[in-house]
Structure formats: structure tokens, C-alpha cells
Specification:
This protein is an alpha+beta fold. 21% of the residues lie in helices and 41% in strands. The strands form three sheets. It has an eight-stranded antiparallel barrel.
């Protein structure tokens, strides 16, 4: 069986029912395409060897609730019968997008080859093995069903009242529907079994397993740091620093992971002499919980290899502490390969080896890209 779906909900009325969000591209365009495909495959001459299920999902905008409910209610036998799923979500801007996205098509063994064979001049984009998490493909992909997001990009007034029917590319929508009929028809009439990739097969066998447990990300953090004088009635003024490095994540459960990083860290504060800064090697380790919204906490270690207070070099042999241990807390949004978050760090001890209790802290934003 092949599932062709589109969500039929949108934002509707907002602001005391005074503003209407029509949602022409998101997602009237997708629903219209699924209806056209149902009409096409409903004709006797186009009947396929495999079953095709046409479905419109509700509550996608509320967290993919309709698609999740559908998948959750499937028995193991029913789930195993579904060999591929297509989510038509925002397909009304082909010309502006200069091509059609088929994200996730590589989760199907020969999906890319067949799609390119049936393209007939249509420019195909993002032929990846990554399941889109922001549309109805996610619940299917999470249980190992190859799931393809059919998409023409965020070229319309996304989630705005201006997303109206007159802006849609109707010739482009027809081209997409014709291509989809050819591509889905080829899959539905293929003599050989439709085979998922090994990654998806592992998820089919154990839906709670992790498809790619170890990932690597490049990270940049822009920090505001300062010193807390715990024994005094004042604190130092803050100054700007940064961190740049790599972070490796091991996801041992669907919602749980640990990460280990290696960073160059420039941390700073203000002092009577001017800018107080230290350059360090930082190694944070965090326990993380969540999927798209992630919270994290854990210890870090810093080795300070040089620094200055105004124009004076810091003496790490006699005055200042070279090794630093502390803890960090964070929250982030992680969608597709992107990471945007906030992180806070606080040392367990003073910057001085022996002397006043002066605690360094940092707060800042983090930006990352998962390879």
C-alpha cells in the first residue's frame, strides 16, 4: 500500500476572529493535488496493482496530531503493509522555488532512480534520506515507513493572511500532479517489492530504536560573561566573548541523548584595568532531553592557556586558576540540521588560586549545524 496525504487544517481566525488566514498554499494546494491524484487513479485505465490510500489529515498545525493518531492506531500488520507515504504540503509555488522538493525519497530503495526517470524535465530538489519533521511525514518515518515530503518551499506568505489563491502557480501545480501520477504509478505497478533502506528497516523492526545514534555538529556561541564577587556587595560589568567548536551527540533513546564537545572559548568580564579575558580549551558534557525543543544540563571543564587583565598577562602559575570546573544549563530548538539555543555556564570555584571568591559566569546564544 502507498499512502498519499495532505493536511487540510490551517490557522483559521486569529486576533478575536478579526484576521483570517486562508492558507491557500498551506495547504489547499496539497489537498487539491491529492484530490486530483485520487480522480486519476480512480479511473479504470489508471488502476494500480498496489493499493493506494488517499487521506486528508487534521491538526497538522497543532503538532501533526492527525497523522500521529492515524499511525498510532495501526496494528503491526497494517503498518507493515504501508510501503511508502507522500505528504503533499505546500506545492503551489513551483516557479518561484525553481523545482520540486522530494525530501525523504532516498529512504525508499530505488526512489531516487524512479523519480528522476519520471521527472520529464521537472527539476527535483533535496533528494535526501532525511524525514521532514515539520509535516505529516514524521509519524510515518518514525516507525520506519519511507516518507516523502512533496514541497515547493517557503515562497508563499507562510502563515500570513496574504496566503491567498491568486498567488498560486496553477500551471506548476498541474505539473506536480502529473509528475506525482507518473511516479506513484511507477511505484504502485512495480513488480519488485518496494524496499526501504536499512535504516528504515531497523525502525520497522523496533520503532523505538534510533536511526542515526551518533551525529556531529559545528557550533558557535556568542556569550556575555561577567564575574560575581560573592564576598562583596557588587559584581563586575559584563563583556562579550565567544566559543567555537564541534559537538558530538549520542542518542541512546528517542528523546534522550548525551553530547560531548570540544571548543575554543574566549570568556571575558570588565575590571578596573579594562577587559579581563581568558582563552581556553573547553570540554562540556551534557545530558539532553527532547526532540525539537531540547533541554540540557551537565558539567564542563576549561583549561585556560592564556589571558589578560587590561594590558597585563595573567599569571596562571601563581595567582589565577588554570583549571576550571563548572556546570551548564541550556535550552534549544533543533529542527532538521539547525540548532538555535541559549546556554548558561557557572564555575564551581573562583578565578583565583588563592584569594577573593570571584565566580565567572557566561550566558549566551548558540547556533549550530548538524553534519
Amino acid at each position: 500500500m502507498i499512502v498519499l496525504g495532505a493536511h487540510y487544517d490551517h490557522l483559521g481566525y486569529k486576533k478575536d476572529r478579526k484576521v483570517w488566514y486562508p492558507g491557500a498554499d498551506d495547504n489547499v494546494s496539497g489537498v487539491a493535488t491529492v484530490i486530483e491524484l485520487a480522480k486519476y487513479f480512480g479511473e479504470d485505465v489508471n488502476r494500480s496493482k498496489r493499493s493506494i490510500l488517499f487521506i486528508a489529515f487534521d491538526a497538522e498545525e497543532s503538532g501533526l496530531l492527525g497523522a500521529k493518531h492515524f499511525v498510532d492506531k495501526l496494528s503491526a500488520e497494517e503498518r507493515n503493509k504501508i510501503k511508502a507515504m507522500f505528504s503533499f504540503d505546500m506545492v503551489g509555488m513551483l516557479s518561484k522555488n525553481k523545482g520540486l522538493v522530494l525530501k525523504g525519497v532516498r529512504t525508499l530503495g530505488d526512489g531516487v532512480e524512479l523519480a528522476e526517470q519520471e521527472a520529464k524535465g521537472l527539476n527535483l530538489l533535496n533528494l535526501s534520506d532525511k524525514i521532514e519533521e515539520r509535516t505529516d511525514t514524521e509519524p510515518f518515518g518514525s516507525v520506519g515507513i519511507p516518507a516523502i515530503h512533496v514541497f515547493t518551499g517557503l515562497k508563499s506568505p507562510y502563515h500570513k493572511p496574504e496566503d491567498k489563491a491568486e498567488l498560486l502557480d496553477y500551471d506548476g501545480m498541474k505539473e506536480i500532479a502529473d509528475f506525482s501520477a507518473r511516479f506513484v504509478g511507477a511505484l504502485a505497478n512495480q513488480q519488485e517489492e518496494l524496499v526501504a533502506t536499512k535504516k528504515m528497516q531497523r525502525l520497522q523492526e523496533n520503532p523505538k530504536s534510533i536511526g542515526k545514534p551518533v551525529t556531529l555538529a559545528g557550533m558557535f556561541q556568542l556569550n556575555s560573561g561577567k564575574h560575581l564577587y560573592d564576598d562583596e556587595f557588587y559584581d563586575a560589568k559584563s563583556d562579550i566573548g565567544f566559543s567555537l567548536g564541534l559537538q558530538m551527540e549520542y542518542r541512546f533513546k528517542k528523546l534522550w541523548a548525551v553530547d560531548l564537545g570540544g571548543y575554543f572559548n574566549n570568556n571575558a568580564s570588565r575590571s578596573a584595568e579594562g577587559r579581563f579575558e581568558r582563552n581556553s580549551l573547553m570540554v562540556p558534557m551534557n545530558l539532553k532531553f527532547g526532540s525539537n525543543v531540547v533541554i540540557s544540563a551537565g558539567p564542563y571543564y576549561k583549561y585556560h592557556f592564556n589571558g589578560k587583565n587590561g594590558n597585563t598577562d595573567l599569571d596562571f602559575e601563581n595567582t589565577f586558576r588554570r583549571d576550571e570546573w563548572g556546570y551548564s544549563l541550556g535550552v534549544a530548538v533543533e529542527v532538521m540540521n539547525y540548532h538555535v539555543g541559549w546556554v548558561s555556564r557557572r564555575s564551581f570555584h573562583s578565578i583565583y588560586s588563592n584569594g577573593p571568591k570571584v565566580i565567572p559566569i557566561e550566558n549566551g546564544v548558540s547556533l549550530g549545524w548538524r553534519f
